[in-house]
């Protein structure tokens, strides 16, 4: 397996990346989707509890990340 990697031409991977960029540029942009109207009661106690739980998990994640 390592032999295959050593024989690869480094320029070939750069060429593939350049081709991908060209294809991405040629692809037409998708029309913007209309925003969905979300009917959530932001004052509901369940919503507040859920928001606090999400915020706590995010804070723990940030502390772990450091």
Provide the structure class: mainly alpha
Q: What oligomeric state do these chains adopt?
A: single chain
The low-pLDDT segments are none
- Name the helix and strand elements from N-terminus to C-terminus, one letter apiece: HHH
Task: Estimate the global geometry from the Cα principal axes.
Answer: flat
As a whole number of angstroms, the C-alpha radius of gyration is 24 Å
Helix content: 55-70%
End-to-end Cα distance, whole Å, is 36 Å
Please outline the major beta sheet. Answer: none
Q: Whole-number average pLDDT?
A: 74
Number of E-state strands: 0
Percentage of residues in strands:
under 5%
Number of helices: 3
Biased composition (Acidic residues): 34-45
InterPro entries: Calmodulin_Regulator_PCP4-like
Organism: Alosa alosa (allis shad)
Protein name: Purkinje cell protein 4
Describe it for me?
By secondary structure, the chain is mostly helical. Helices cover 67% and strands 0% of the residues. The protein has 3 helices and no strands. The protein is flat, with a radius of gyration of 24 Å. The two termini are 36 Å apart. Residues 34-45 have a biased composition (Acidic residues). InterPro entries: Calmodulin_Regulator_PCP4-like. It comes from Alosa alosa.
């Amino acid at each position: 397996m390592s032999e295959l990697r050593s024989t690869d031409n480094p320029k070939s991977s750069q060429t593939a990346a350049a081709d991908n960029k060209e294809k991405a540029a040629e692809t037409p942009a998708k029309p913007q989707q209309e925003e969905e109207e979300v009917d959530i009661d932001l004052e509901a106690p369940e919503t507040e509890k859920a928001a606090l739980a999400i915020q706590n998990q995010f804070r723990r994640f940030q502390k772990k990340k450091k």
